Protein backbone atom coordinates (compact mmCIF):
# COMPACT_ATOMS: atom_id res chain seq x y z
CA UNK A 1 0.00 0.00 0.00
CA UNK A 2 1.51 3.29 -1.09
CA UNK A 3 0.35 6.87 -0.93
CA UNK A 4 2.79 9.59 -1.90
CA UNK A 5 2.52 12.67 0.27
CA UNK A 6 5.54 14.70 -0.86
CA UNK A 7 6.71 15.79 2.58
CA UNK A 8 9.90 13.72 2.60
CA UNK A 9 8.73 11.78 5.66
CA UNK A 10 5.71 9.91 4.31
CA UNK A 11 3.35 11.40 6.87
CA UNK A 12 -0.15 12.17 5.67
CA UNK A 13 -1.04 15.56 7.08
CA UNK A 14 -4.29 15.66 9.03
CA UNK A 15 -4.90 19.41 8.67
CA UNK A 16 -8.64 19.82 8.78
CA UNK A 17 -9.19 16.08 8.26
CA UNK A 18 -9.48 16.72 4.52
CA UNK A 19 -7.36 15.33 1.71
CA UNK A 20 -7.19 15.48 -2.08
CA UNK A 21 -6.29 12.21 -3.84
CA UNK A 22 -4.57 12.31 -7.24
CA UNK A 23 -2.87 9.67 -9.38
CA UNK A 24 0.58 11.12 -9.93
CA UNK A 25 3.25 11.98 -7.38
CA UNK A 26 4.19 14.80 -9.76
CA UNK A 27 0.78 16.39 -9.10
CA UNK A 28 1.55 16.27 -5.38
CA UNK A 29 4.91 17.95 -5.99
CA UNK A 30 3.22 20.60 -8.15
CA UNK A 31 0.57 21.27 -5.48
CA UNK A 32 3.26 21.73 -2.83
CA UNK A 33 5.30 23.99 -5.13
CA UNK A 34 2.24 26.15 -5.81
CA UNK A 35 1.40 26.36 -2.12
CA UNK A 36 -1.96 24.60 -2.28
CA UNK A 37 -3.33 24.64 1.28
CA UNK A 38 -5.30 21.37 1.15
CA UNK A 39 -3.14 18.25 1.68
CA UNK A 40 -2.66 16.28 -1.55
CA UNK A 41 -1.66 12.60 -1.76
CA UNK A 42 -1.03 10.37 -4.77
CA UNK A 43 -1.90 6.74 -5.37
CA UNK A 44 1.05 6.18 -7.76
CA UNK A 45 -1.22 5.51 -10.70
CA UNK A 46 -4.82 4.63 -11.37
CA UNK A 47 -4.66 1.22 -9.68
CA UNK A 48 -6.03 1.70 -6.20
CA UNK A 49 -5.68 -1.00 -3.56
CA UNK A 50 -7.76 -1.84 -0.50
CA UNK A 51 -4.93 -0.65 1.77
CA UNK A 52 -4.96 2.80 0.20
CA UNK A 53 -8.73 3.01 0.58
CA UNK A 54 -8.44 1.95 4.23
CA UNK A 55 -5.97 4.77 4.94
CA UNK A 56 -8.24 7.30 3.23
CA UNK A 57 -11.25 6.16 5.28
CA UNK A 58 -9.70 7.94 8.28
CA UNK A 59 -10.42 11.31 6.65
CA UNK A 60 -13.78 13.02 7.00
CA UNK A 61 -13.53 14.60 3.53
CA UNK A 62 -11.84 12.94 0.59
CA UNK A 63 -11.65 14.85 -2.69
CA UNK A 64 -10.87 12.64 -5.66
CA UNK A 65 -9.09 14.36 -8.56
CA UNK A 66 -8.46 11.69 -11.17
CA UNK A 67 -6.85 12.21 -14.56
CA UNK A 68 -9.18 12.82 -17.48
CA UNK A 69 -8.64 9.44 -19.15
CA UNK A 70 -10.20 5.94 -18.94
CA UNK A 71 -7.78 4.78 -16.23
CA UNK A 72 -8.50 7.90 -14.18
CA UNK A 73 -12.25 7.37 -14.44
CA UNK A 74 -11.76 3.79 -13.22
CA UNK A 75 -9.72 5.06 -10.26
CA UNK A 76 -12.40 7.65 -9.51
CA UNK A 77 -15.13 4.99 -9.42
CA UNK A 78 -13.10 2.65 -7.24
CA UNK A 79 -12.32 5.36 -4.70
CA UNK A 80 -15.90 6.65 -4.61
CA UNK A 81 -17.32 3.16 -4.24
CA UNK A 82 -14.80 2.29 -1.53
CA UNK A 83 -15.20 5.49 0.48
CA UNK A 84 -18.66 6.97 0.05
CA UNK A 85 -20.21 5.17 3.03
CA UNK A 86 -17.29 6.01 5.39
CA UNK A 87 -16.23 9.53 4.40
CA UNK A 88 -17.73 12.54 2.68
CA UNK A 89 -16.40 12.08 -0.82
CA UNK A 90 -16.24 14.73 -3.50
CA UNK A 91 -15.06 14.48 -7.09
CA UNK A 92 -13.29 17.14 -9.12
CA UNK A 93 -14.56 17.29 -12.68
CA UNK A 94 -11.30 17.64 -14.59
CA UNK A 95 -10.99 20.01 -17.49
CA UNK A 96 -10.48 18.23 -20.81
CA UNK A 97 -7.17 16.40 -20.76
CA UNK A 98 -5.92 18.13 -17.62
CA UNK A 99 -4.90 16.98 -14.17
CA UNK A 100 -3.80 18.94 -11.10
CA UNK A 101 -0.23 19.16 -12.40
CA UNK A 102 -1.38 21.15 -15.44
CA UNK A 103 -2.51 24.17 -13.40
CA UNK A 104 -0.22 27.15 -12.80
CA UNK A 105 -1.55 28.76 -9.63
CA UNK A 106 -2.68 27.61 -6.20
CA UNK A 107 -5.83 29.68 -6.72
CA UNK A 108 -6.82 27.77 -9.87
CA UNK A 109 -6.20 24.41 -8.16
CA UNK A 110 -8.12 25.44 -5.05
CA UNK A 111 -10.99 26.74 -7.21
CA UNK A 112 -11.29 23.32 -8.88
CA UNK A 113 -11.22 21.65 -5.46
CA UNK A 114 -13.92 24.03 -4.18
CA UNK A 115 -16.09 23.21 -7.20
CA UNK A 116 -15.87 19.43 -6.62
CA UNK A 117 -19.24 17.66 -6.72
CA UNK A 118 -20.52 15.34 -4.03
CA UNK A 119 -19.90 11.68 -4.83
CA UNK A 120 -23.65 10.99 -4.59
CA UNK A 121 -24.07 13.09 -7.75
CA UNK A 122 -21.42 10.97 -9.48
CA UNK A 123 -23.10 7.73 -8.37
CA UNK A 124 -26.38 8.95 -9.87
CA UNK A 125 -24.59 10.01 -13.06
CA UNK A 126 -22.86 6.64 -13.39
CA UNK A 127 -26.06 4.71 -12.69
CA UNK A 128 -27.98 6.82 -15.20
CA UNK A 129 -25.24 6.20 -17.75
CA UNK A 130 -25.49 2.45 -17.16
CA UNK A 131 -29.27 2.57 -17.66
CA UNK A 132 -28.85 4.57 -20.86
CA UNK A 133 -26.20 2.13 -22.10
CA UNK A 134 -28.56 -0.79 -21.56
CA UNK A 135 -31.39 1.06 -23.31
CA UNK A 136 -29.13 1.91 -26.23
CA UNK A 137 -28.00 -1.70 -26.61
CA UNK A 138 -31.47 -3.18 -26.62
CA UNK A 139 -33.68 -0.14 -27.31
CA UNK A 140 -36.49 0.94 -25.07
CA UNK A 141 -39.99 -0.53 -25.32
CA UNK A 142 -41.44 2.43 -27.23
CA UNK A 143 -38.66 2.23 -29.83
CA UNK A 144 -39.21 -1.51 -30.27
CA UNK A 145 -42.96 -0.95 -30.79
CA UNK A 146 -42.20 1.68 -33.43
CA UNK A 147 -39.85 -0.70 -35.19
CA UNK A 148 -36.81 1.49 -34.50
CA UNK A 149 -34.90 -1.33 -32.85
CA UNK A 150 -34.52 -4.80 -34.23
CA UNK A 151 -35.65 -7.49 -31.77
CA UNK A 152 -32.89 -9.56 -30.19
CA UNK A 153 -32.62 -13.14 -31.33
3D structure, described in words:
- By secondary structure, the protein is of the alpha/beta class.
- Helices cover 42% and strands 12% of the residues.
- The radius of gyration is 18 Å and the shape is globular.
Q: What is the secondary structure topology, with strand pairs?
A:
Layout: E1 18-22, H1 25-34, E2 40-42, H2 50-56, E3 61-64, H3 70-83, E4 88-91, H4 106-114, E5 117-118, H5 119-138, H6 141-145
Parallel strand pairs: 1-2, 1-3, 3-4
Antiparallel strand pairs: 4-5
As a whole number of angstroms, the C-alpha radius of gyration is 18 Å
The separation of the N and C termini measures 47 Å
Poorly predicted runs are 143-151
Going across the major beta sheet, what is the strand order? 2-1-3-4-5
Strand content: 5-15%
Class per helix and strand makeup: alpha/beta
CATH class of the domain at 15-118: Alpha Beta
Tell me the helix content: 40-55%
What spatial form do the alpha-carbon principal axes imply?
globular
Count of helix runs: 6
Q: How many β strands by DSSP?
A: 5
Quaternary state reads: single chain
CATH architecture of the domain at 15-118: 3-Layer(aba) Sandwich
Largest sheet: 5 strands, mixed
